[in-house]
Amino acid sequence: MARNTRNPNARLQRIESPGSHHMAMPLDKQVQEIREVLVDMWALISPFSAPQTGDYTVTGNVAIERVIMTNTASATVTLPTSPDDLAEVFVKRTDAQVTIDGNGKTIDGQATQVLGTQYDGAHMLYTDAAGEWSFV
Question: Which of 5, 64, 93, 126 is in Cβ range 3.0-4.6 Å of 47 for a Cys bridge?
Answer without folding.
Answer: 64
